[in-house]
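#onboarding

Welcome to the new folks! Below is a worked example of what a typical request in this channel looks like: someone posts a single protein sequence, and someone else replies with the predicted structure as tokens. Don't worry about understanding the tokens yet, we'll cover that in week two.

Example request:
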Amino acid sequence: MQKPKDPEDYELRDEYDLSKMTVVPKGRYEPGRRAGKNVVVRAPDVVQAFPTDEAVNEALRLVMQIAKIPRKRRAKAA
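Example response:
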């Protein structure tokens, strides 16, 4: 491949047909990496307690509900 004579000349050659070229998204824009495709690795002891995805989701929903329960304040000791 020959080096361009003018480095500021960025024109494409006539033989390039851009209509036939496809754009391949990479990185975070790749279709395979969309939301819902994230992988979470569970520790072996957690796998024993929660063997399925649904069991993990149910436990986390329970934790979220518990977090919403207002806590009573302790009376200050006199």
